[in-house]
């Protein structure tokens, strides 16, 4: 007799594993299938985020941030020390250990919650059936009342720069360098390109970022984007906008990239090249021809507002469906779907999904940008407050950037927040909470903020929306 579950989840990234845990918590018998095999040849859960995404990139960002601080900031505090050195293999090993701990943590959570972990590949067949093939190649058919597809995404490759083993790499390869490349090229000035470019720039690489778009961070509020470009350039990133890569040639252990910009054809040579031009939904081998699940024209699984596909009982979440490719969006969709399967009326507020770029300083945003509101013809007020006027930021010599809050001109309801500065990701979360509760800027202005905290910048920016900031000259 074939195995039967209330829910089978295909994909164990932050979308799939969270969905599986919530399903089990809601009393549904649940299995989660994932085919990821780690560097040691072991099947693991956690997906892109834990294995080669959010977590390892932040581990390297944190190590290199500390290195940079030791180099450049400690002396300001009166701290002197001997020569500061970075042992790159040790840094990478620390990152690997964190990844291992976290992926093992998912396995522990599965056990604790009673989720059946199935290591191998899942394929959706018609009639809510799943073909599971384990890593030894043995297949079986599993029946499910509901199936959640959470197969994530993979890096986009571009024809001018095919990946080579060790010279032209994607984001995964860029987490594995064993020494600091002298000349590093990054194609794509998006979140991943800027984060990985920052990691290696801090360790001494000469980093050139080639971006095809004519504006920098074009989806980010442009006041923040402008400040980010200024600060990242000051740190040493050579960001070239309007630079469209057309070809590459690997010679020995270097690569020469050809690109086109407003002045014509250019050539530049690097020791390593990171291709970070975006990610695409991953559905290879996932669907039988008669599964009943449809895709949109860009290859995303087609779902409605509640992540239900066109096939009854089949749901899809995370990077493999429309919306921002973010771990927390994937997880919350997982929770929503689990709750809906259990008969609850859960929903997700897609208007209030924060996004963070973990450069230094961080760049965080939620809601509408000023450019979007302008284009929609909406009237709004803006409040801005610089970190340079915040006592706590001054005490830690972390004064770059600002908080910008945008509120509806008529109702004062907060429409968006855009922050570049220390702990921007955490500060932005305060506005996420406020927006979720429909707060006005005045609501935040009337709240008590502890002094001296970096959070006071949020308070002052909210006050500034209605021209009443206190510490503004
Ligand atoms: P994934 O995490 O991609 O997981 C999908 C899983 O499905 C994989 O484990 C895969 O093995 C499995 N799978 C696929 N097909 C099958 C199949 N047929 N059978 C069995 N298993 C299958 N997001 C953030 O929010 N914050 C960040 O700071 C951040 N940093 C990032 C840094 C980098 C370098 C990268 C690459 C990404 C980063 N992201 C970040 C994006 C984040 O990793 C993704 O948005 C998130 O992992 C998506 O989750 P998911 O569950 O949809 O898919």
From TrEMBL:
Domain Pyridine nucleotide-disulphide oxidoreductase dimerisation: 353-462
Subcellular location, principal: cytoplasm
Residues of the active site: 451 (proton acceptor)
Keywords: Cytoplasm, Disulfide bond, FAD, Flavoprotein, NAD, Nucleotide-binding, Oxidoreductase, Redox-active center
Subcellular location: Cytoplasm
Cofactor(s) needed: FAD
Annotated S-S bridges: 49-54
Domain (FAD/NAD(P)-binding) ranges: 5-334
GO biological process assignments: 2-oxoglutarate metabolic process
GO cellular component, one term: cytoplasm
SUPFAM superfamilies per the UniProt record, alphabetical: FAD/NAD(P)-binding domain (SSF51905), FAD/NAD-linked reductases, dimerisation (C-terminal) domain (SSF55424)
Enzyme Commission designation: 1.8.1.4
Cofactor note: Binds 1 FAD per subunit.
Binding site for FAD: 58, 122, 151-153, 319, 325-328
GO MF: dihydrolipoyl dehydrogenase (NADH) activity; flavin adenine dinucleotide binding
Listed Pfam families: Pyr_redox_2, Pyr_redox_dim
PANTHER family cross-referenced by the UniProt entry: DIHYDROLIPOYL DEHYDROGENASE (PTHR22912:SF224), DISULFIDE OXIDOREDUCTASE (PTHR22912)
Family: Belongs to the class-I pyridine nucleotide-disulfide oxidoreductase family.
Further remark: The active site is a redox-active disulfide bond.
Protein name (database record): Dihydrolipoyl dehydrogenase
Originating organism: Oleispira antarctica RB-8
Gene name of this polypeptide: lpdG
